Amino acid sequence: MVAVFACPSTTTTMVTIPEVMLSSGAKPMPLIGMGTAVYPFAASETMRAAILRAIELGYRHFDTAAIYRSEEPLGEAIAEAVRSGAIESRDELFITSKLWCSDAHGHLVLPALQRTLRNLQLDYLDLYLIHWPVSTKPGRYEVPMPKEDLLPIDMRSVWKAMEECQRLGLTRSIGVSNFSTKKLETLLSIANIPPAVNQVEVNPLWQQQKLREFCVAKGIQVCAYSPMGAKGTMWGQDWVMNCDVLKDIAAAKGKTLAQICLRWVHEQGDCVLAKSFNEKRMLENLDMLDWALNEDEKRNISEIPQRKGCLGLEFVSDDGPYNSAEELWDGEI
Q1: What gap in Å lies between CA 134 and CA 150, rounded to an integer?
Q2: Cβ atoms of 18 and 2 closer than 8 Å
């Protein structure tokens, strides 16, 4: 399935964004989305204006989170887009947000989602995710957090509350983020409503083949964050943007290195989330659908040595619940 939106730069150019149906929820998810995480986390007028412009350019999928501080600017941009006629209603958009660790307690999930909806000025989300398989002491919205605040997550009670949010119609689908294959297996064993999405780091230097194969087999859609490595953030690295293999492919195809990364992720069948508030790059990030990587290029990318950028060390402590990155990711690093 594809969604077709007019690009306002000309009267003839069309942006055709493929969509995928999730295992739950009636609305398909656009396979290209705009991320809104800027580190240090903070709302800004620049963010609001960039999101509004992205809607005008044809973006329909937006990814936010309670910890990002981007819910309010996103909500303001959506409201302005409706007022200006850029979209007829919020229903044209696919909005994802995430439950932060300090709210990852069974009794706090519903209030957290209600707060997110107030921030966004919306009646419902399209997708609500558990941000990390970790809980922290309630009340703090910060990262890194004090190590003494880290707690094991009660997955059964948290997921039950997520399921109730879906039953109430406050979110159309529910899912997770940063879950390993093993953690997904545990969740699937207790879930009445299985997770529709697992949002994880995916790029040519961290290809996630084992996890993707598991998710495909279980009907879980992979959403890729940091497709270009998230250079300049606390969770990112510059390895992807400095990769000679990707530089050579980009030069040969007359594309940017970022476009090579986005196209590669798209060809894996993943939803890809890219963050840029620069209009030129926003357009470039959409321009990766009418061309393809050839077999030699795909083989060269498949042979790139793998290095995980986001280790999640802020969630690791000698006192647990995870004593090492290997334990957090169940050896999948």
Answers
A1: 7
A2: yes
Catalytically annotated residue among 68, 128, 225, 322:
68
* Cα dihedral sign, 318-322-327-333: negative
Beta bridge partners of 94: 61
Could you tell me whether strands 174-177 and 197-201 are parallel, antiparallel, or unpaired per DSSP bridges?
A: parallel
As annotated, the binding site for substrate includes 131
Supply 6's token pair. Answer: 């007019």
For the question of residue 68 being annotated catalytic, the response is yes
Q: How far apart are CA 161 and CA 153, in angstroms?
A: 13
Cβ–Cβ < 8 Å for 39, 232: yes
pLDDT per residue as tens digits for the range 141-151: 999 999 999 99
Whole-structure pTM value: 0.95
pLDDT for position 12: 36
Min mean pLDDT across 5-14, 103-112, 166-175, 284-293 is at 5-14
How does pLDDT run across 223-264, given as a tens digit for each residue?
999 999 966 666 568 899 999 999 999 999 999 999 999 999
Which amino acid appears at position 150 of this protein?
L
Angle separating helix axes 244-253 and 257-267, nearest 10 degrees? 100
- Please enumerate in sequence order all residues whose Cβ is within 8 A of that of 112, keeping only pairs 6 or more positions apart, or say none: 66, 99, 100, 103
Q: Which of 7, 61, 65 is nearest to 31 (CA)?
A: 61
Query: Which residues make Cβ contacts (< 8 Å) with residue 121, sequence separation at least 6?
Result: 75, 76, 78, 79
Residue ranges of the binding site: 131
